[in-house]
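Tutorial, part two.
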Amino acid sequence: MTAEDLMIEFSLTRLDHPELDIEEIAALVVRRGGPERELEFAARNLADRGELRGAAFPTAVEYVLRVVLTLRGPSD
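Running the prediction step on this input gives:
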C-alpha cells in the first residue's frame, strides 16, 4: 500500500466516523487491514525508526499517523 492509498483509506474512514480523533481513526484503519496489513505497517514503522522490535498494533497505528501527518503537511 502506498502512502497515497493509505491517506485515501484514512480519509474515507474519517468521513464514516467524524466523531473520532485521528488516533482512533488510525486504529480503525489498522484493524480493517487485518493481521497482514498490521504487520506491514509495524515493520515499516520500525524500519523508519531503526528499531528491531515493538508491539505490532501500536507500532502500526503510529505508522499510519506518521504517514497521515506527513502528507497533510504543516498546520496553519
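The mean pLDDT is 92. In part three we will examine how such features are distributed along the chain.
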